[in-house]
Design a protein that fits this description.
Helix content: under 10%
CATH class: Mainly Beta
CATH topology: Immunoglobulin-like
Strand content: over 45%
Number of helices: 0
Distance between the termini: 32 Å
Radius of gyration: 13 Å
Length: 99
């Protein structure tokens, strides 16, 4: 079966942040983790790139490239989005509030 790996705050072994661009974060609803939220990654032109399901603790992770991104979360309590500017390799952490 094909699909995204389990979402955690920990990066997979072998992730080299000097070479990889990783967008990580949490989806929150009323300040609490929004488990099961659908988290979408949109490129700089607004085109859909990827989607994962947030973990029970609201965590999500995308391996992307440098550039302008939008992270959009959809949850039963509402939706929200945030812009992320990834200047280069490294880990970029964010929170997306839904409601």
């Amino acid at each position: 079966m094909c699909g995204a790996p389990d979402q955690t705050d920990e990066l997979p072994p072998g992730t080299d942040l000097s070479r990889h661009t990783v967008l990580t974060g949490k989806v929150l609803s009323g300040g609490e983790p929004a488990s099961g939220a659908f988290v979408r990654l949109l490129d700089g032109s607004g085109e859909f790139t990827a989607e994962v399901v947030a973990s029970a603790s609201g965590d999500f992770r995308f391996f992307a490239g440098p550039g302008e991104w939008t992270v959009r979360a959809l949850h039963r309590s509402g939706s929200g989005e945030i812009a992320v500017a990834a200047a280069g390799s490294g880990r970029y952490e964010t929170e997306v509030a839904v409601g």
